[in-house]
Amino acid sequence: MIVEPASTLAPPVVAVMIVHEPGPWFDEALAGLSRQDYANLKVLVLVAGDPGDLARTITEAVPRAFVRAVDDLGFGPVANEVLRLVEGENGFFCFLHDDVALDPDAIRLLVEEVYRSNAGIVGPKLVDWNDSTVLQHVGYGVDRFGDVDPMVEPGETDQEQHDAVRDVFALPSACLLVRADLFTSLGGFDADIAYHGEDVDLCWRAHLQGARVLVVPSARARHRESLVERRPDLDHVAMRERHRMFTVAALTGARRLPLLLLELVVVTLAQFVASLFSGHAARGWAGLRGLVGLVPDIAHIVRRRREIAATRLVPDREVVGLQIRGSARVAAYLRSRDARPDPTQQNKAWRERSGGAAAIGFLVLVAAVLIGGRHVIAAGVPRFGQFLPFPDGPSGLLRSYANGWNPRGLGASAPLPTGFAVVAAGSVVTLFRMGLFHTITIVGLVIVAAAGMWRLTSAYSLTRARLVTTALYALVPLPAASLSMGRWGALLVFAAMPWSIDLMRRFAGLQPGPADETGERVIGFGSRRHVRLLAGGVLVAAIVVAFEPSYLLMLLSVSVLLAVATLFTGAPMRSALRFAVAGVVAVAGGALLGLPWLVSLVSDGGWSSFVGPTPVGDRGNTVLQLLTFDLGRTSAAVIALALYLPVVVSLLVGRGWRLGWAARGGTLVIAFAWFAVLDDRGAMPFRLPEPGIVLVPVAVGLALAAGCVVGSFELDVRGGSFGWRQPLSLLACVAVGVGMVPGVLALGNGRWNMPTTTMADLLGWFPDDASGDYRVLWVGDDGVVPARPTEYRPGVGYAITSGGDLDLADAWPAPATGSDDDIAGALDAISFGTTTRAGRLLAPYAVRYVVVPLVDGAVSTSRDPVAPPAGLVDALGDQLDLAQVYSPPNFLVYENRAWVAERSVLTASGADASGAAGVEALAQADISGAAPIMIGADHRDAATAPVEAGATVHVAVPFDRAWALSVDGIDVPPRPAFGSTMAFDTPAAGTAELAYETERTHALWVFAQLLGWCVVALATTNIGARRGRRAVRTRNEPVEPVITLDPLVQSAVES
Amino acid sequence: MTPRRAIATVVAVVLALTGLALASRREPVVLQASFASLGRPTMPFVPTGSFITSSWFCPGVPAGEADVGGSVTITNPNDEAMTGTVTAYTTSSDESTAGPPSASRPITVEPRSATTVDLVEMQPSGSFVAAVVEINGGGGFVEQVARHPAGDAVAACANAASSDWYFADGFTVDGSTEQLVLTNPYPDAAIVDIGFVTADGVRRPSRLQGYPVPGHSVQVVELGARDEPVVAAEVVASRGRVVAGRSQHYVGGGRLGYTMTLGAPSLSTQYWFADGERGTGITESYSIFNPTDEDVTVYPVFLGAPVSAEFTNDREITVPKGRVVTFDTADEAQLPDGRHGVVFSTFSTASIVVERVITRPAGDSVATSVVMGSPPELASRRWSAAISSDIAVDEAIVVLNADNIATTVTVSTLGTGGLVPVPGLEALPLAAGAVLTIPINDPSAIGVPFVVTSDQSIFVERLLPRGADLRGRSGSFALAG
């Protein structure tokens, strides 16, 4: 139904204004439209999103305007609605932003120039909204990489120097007048470009059809150009770069495209490097991401090129001739150097500079970390604590992961830790050089933590505050303590926590507002971004949980506390709830991606699998040690106490977002400091993870508070009237600097005080497996046991390792088996003195050595050794079949003279004894003397050995039918041996083959898990979202036109 | 955030930080993790509770010569047959190397009976043979008897090896010999430091420092002290642990006979003796050894002897650090003749070890018996003995009531369904703190294990014939429990 005929006095022009949540300036923009002196002007206002009472406002200002509410799909897609709402092609469309105020004659002058110059697209001179003597845009120059040269300098005064009508490559979409037929034939704006770049793309395509693009300076419009401030939910830099890449890839001629793409790669990389030093790292990074983003978009690009090729009228070389030769970016930079300083930008000068300062500051931080770990980087990370080497190469790790047999401890058909697969996948970073990857995953975590904090502090609008927060987080004594004690789990949590909080923060919509804003700014955004942020949170949680399951507890508690703090700051309930929701989703998702290992872990170890073994008595840290993160070998950690002053001061002097984040930081500090203290004293109803993990939110809170103090000093205190705030803030700033001293001191050592000689270095003492594969039973103080201990008693743990070597897999809990009770039973027998033949009890499990760790170099040192548990050495000394053998002073070694190899042929008496079960039978049977077979066999491959008829092959693993033995291809049924291990009585002589058969359910689990990780990883990207947007924008539901440009219809209506 | 909320937040944070500061006044309690509560090693006893296997470490019997030898006697007080293993270790010709391979023999002990295994028969080589008896399921008790021409000596077998062993008495006057018999039942070598104390002071010969005791072997150590009336010895293992016994052959200087005594594996604050006696021809002395670095004052208190105005029973003896002091009851002029018990106490920490030397007339000669005291924790209402007298004798059992309450004592043998009281030895009255001697003359009690029970804590010693045609008795404690 046509409701408005076109006038016949002049070519019809439909002014299309796209409106989205306008501000107070909107009245002026509407007034500009209503004052137009053009005779045949129709106004179509497209309100994106919720229209509210905008229709009334618009019709009051422009009585004959057509107002339509449309989905908020972005400027370009919304503008394209004109193709459906306006019928006919005999006229013009004048697209306008809602923050553009036209001079009264602007449209008339534009139309006149279109006819005069036979142009396809024309645009006015855009001047500053507040000062119309300042030029904003007179068209764009564009180079072959799609980079835009704005032609005018920021703050350039309009002295009519650009007042000649001239051809330009592109015009800003803020106001451009397009021939309707051209716009229709172009198909409108690219529906995939919501913001940033839709104008360049449209004009480039117009050039391909031979249309001229002109700037008409006699026509003038004022423009606010405040999209960045109005839509803080969008990543403007990334969008700009992504769309630029897409446009170049889609519109460049086929012949030039390969070379140009090559150039684009080189230039983008060069720009990225340059951006690091120029303070535009975000832009450089966005360019890199945009370039990489072309890969998944290849199919779409090809389709788009086909569509454009069908309408291309002008050879590519002619279009290239219209583009700027060389680099528009370089040209703009060189011109800006020669330009006079912009007085209007003087107050922003420090912030412009701070971009470079941020890059330099971050580089200094990275350099400090590298210097702090120079010896570690050069010589490799010492093997102690949880810093054990990776067990295998990536293929070996993946094979182990897929195999289904977990060889840790006594071995069991149980899922391997998800960390196996994560390490294997992550090793691609170092091109599968596992040693280098190991070093990076330890030393690099401090840098990852700093990067996370930098990202989190994008909630601060001040680069200086962000720098201080980031530096402080990296330099609190906590990471140095964790490094010195070999606590990889604590380091992982330290590195990941800022990333997780940042994703929660983004999900909650918290954005920095202007300095004078009273409260905090909360923005809303689309569901796809919600999904992306939630997926990011899940991914971060899943990666950490793959190594440190207690992260689930930490994340959940942090999110709840942040939600409460956010609510307290007066932020909307929705925002607070989102903190909690993001945390819960990350926890749930992280746990799901950790399946099935996580289930196995929890069912085996219960709460202890999260929080570690029970300490005996208090953990032994004083409140001062906890508050100053003095958990390792850090010098002058007590100085870090100064960092608590900013926590209070930031609350006293902060306003706006500073106060909000000070409250959140303070909440984390107080809550988790108390948690750590109460847990240390055993005063909590349940145990918490180790202090190094519980204190991570304290470090986050201190860093956030320090940033808030600096921000408040900059924005709230400095320049104000003198009072108590100034000296207090200054004192807090000084405290921030002082508090970093311990972290700086830790850098001097060059190895973060990690031990030079560790227990693991001395394990070469253990003999090779020439006399059969064997296991080692470590038993002692649970803090000194070099593998993940199973709790035997408070403070006493034991672990079983294969041979004398230790690797990262030993840092994970061993799977529980029914035979664990036998090991615990043997320890009971030793402890209570109920036998002097405990070696026989351990023999069926191939335990050749019982080792009491004394000095691991971290928890227990030669200078300050941790005494072995009381009675342990005496109790072991009572055993008649355990012979203490000479060993390095770091551990006491008892050789079990009754041991048998992991795979062996039992002696006749041993075979007879294997039919009996129970500790009594074991203690009475001497099964030593068995002949080892299949030495060095790997559970992932079948092993073979010749056997005699009537032999009893003993396999020292808990009875499991997945293990199969055949002799010359004939299966031999297994039977339990000694009540818990496996034996095969061979009926005939031949070659025995022993193999583990992976269960089908395990394979399905692995596949499902892989699928889950892929889905979450995909959800963190824009790929799915972009495809979804395309689907929305290409829908073509029938709509009744409301305006016609058709002269026949026009005549009919008039008649 | 509203100003009111901001103020509330600041107050809350300040209060919380103040709370942390206040909490810092309490220092954390750091405890050492405990794997086993083994307690101090002590003199042998019959352990209770369930065992997978229980082991008894016998200090050794002489071998390698005619007329010497010995055996272990394993008693099964239960109603089911008991199985186990006896492993015999012996000395090597070269002290620095391990001896011949150990010899093992499975044993079965029928219910309520005892089995004796001749160690020399099992392991004929070497000058001393020691044994480890492992009993499956626990429940029995083991003693050894060393046979010597100068007299048989019964000794208890230790419940465990130890890194420390102490002997308070030693006597090398007039050619009497003293040997320490060190047994290492473990597969790895032990290293011990041996020192001894004479009237001249402490001596630590270099040849006895870092002295190796190879695994599964017995080492016999001659201390080298000549004509010393008192030689206390100390064996401290710097690596591993051993079982230490002392073999003494008295040939003069007022002592005659042979003793094989298990050392004391730890020091104590008290030592109890049941069989003291003062009388004509009897010499009774106590060697008190203080190997610690502090002087201690020891208070001997005689039990079962009437206190009078003349006999105040309040003697004090100062034992200097690292020295041994001999206390002769002859010096206690007012102590009445007759039987008495005695307890040596110190208010210091566990710092002493005390042995009693008593020489009694034996026909035309004398017989010397040396007994290590019993620490207070062994005071028990039940005492067991695997070895009894093969002939009817009076005063075979000496019981001391350790409590200040009158009680009764019953001597039983092992019978169907439990203990069977020996006729005439049921509910024998025993006054508070008194000493009671009991004969073994009922046929049912001769040559079989026996158990002494009471309603109060008691100490029980045996006075067994020395064997062969020798007169006199050899004393030894029964096993508590």
Can you give a write-up of this model?
- The complex is a heterodimer of chains A (about 1050) and B (about 475).
- Chain A is α+β, with helices and mostly antiparallel strands and about 1050 residues long.
- Helices cover about 45% and strands about 15% of the residues of chain A.
- Chain A has 42 helices and 33 strands.
- In chain A, the strands form 8 sheets. In chain A, strands 1, 2, 3, 5, 6, 7, 8, 11, 12 and 13 form a 10-stranded mixed sheet that branches. In chain A, strands 19-20-18-21-23-22 form a 6-stranded mixed sheet. Chain A has a 5-stranded antiparallel sheet with strand order 25-24-27-31-30, with helices on one face.
- In chain A, a hairpin with a 3-residue loop joins strand 30 and strand 31.
- In chain A, helix 22 packs antiparallel against helix 23 and helix 24 crosses helix 30.
- Chain B has about 475 residues and is mainly beta.
- Helix content of chain B is about 5%, strand content about 50%.
- In chain B, the strands form 7 sheets. In chain B, strands 26, 27, 28, 29, 30, 31, 32, 33 and 34 form a 9-stranded antiparallel sheet that branches. In chain B, strands 9, 11, 12, 13 and 15 form a 5-stranded antiparallel sheet that branches. Chain B has a 4-stranded antiparallel sheet with strand order 1-6-3-4.
- In chain B, strand 28 and strand 29 form a beta hairpin.
- The longest helix of chain B is centred in the first third of the chain and has 21 residues.
- In chain B, about 55% of the residues are buried.
- The mean pLDDT of chain B is about 90.
- Chains A and B meet through helix 28, helix 29, helix 30, helix 35 and helix 37 of A and helix 1, strand 1 and strand 6 of B.
